[in-house]
Amino acid sequence: MAEFRGLGFDPVPGRPDAVSEAARRYAAAATRLGEIPAPGEIPEWAGRSARALADRAGRATAGLAAVPQALRAAAAILDDWAGTLLAHHRRAEELDHRATAARQAVTGARDDVEQAETEAQFSPARHPDLTAARTRLAARQDDLDRVLAEARELERGHTAEAARVADRLRALGDGAPLPSAPDFRGVTTHLETFSALGRELGVTVAKTPVVPVAPPAGAVGAFTAALGGR
Q1: What's the superkingdom here (predicted)?
Q2: Is residue 217 part of a domain?
Q3: At CA 148, angle to CA 98 and CA 91, rounded to 5?
């Protein structure tokens, strides 16, 4: 996790590498699901139970047909977010370097003021130097405040964009039954941990069936766990 000591806070929480890895896994999962053959009839089995199984298998197949597409869509969204996150990190690093330099300038200007105050106590003729030193300190503090304001603006934009990405993930498959409501705060706030993204995708997959299929209890959690989430 990046540290921004010059700024004093992290304006762009998130890990581009983790998001890129999540996108890669989702794309790979979509490919694997697309390679699974549809269940066929069992010639040696007939009767009511065979028809019930065939009906269940058919509905499950129809319900899962949209999952690879949802996975690929989620992968594309996350891949795009990883690029945005990387750009935000670079901007934050630039601001952090500027803030570090600005803080050093403030420290130097404050030392100059203290020295000028000491000299002015013993020599009234040095009062103009004290006034000038205080003016320089105020200017250096203004420089630092401007950098911190830019960082706060970056933080607001980053948070808003993360929320939009989370909304796009939630929108995948909207309109289908939602079997459970996991906690999305990790994705909305940071979009940084694979476990949080797994929860988001678990809901996406649960919402994608074209034909209503009631998933068994814990289906979302099981799918999330299979993708590496907690």
Answers
A1: Bacteria
A2: yes
A3: 55
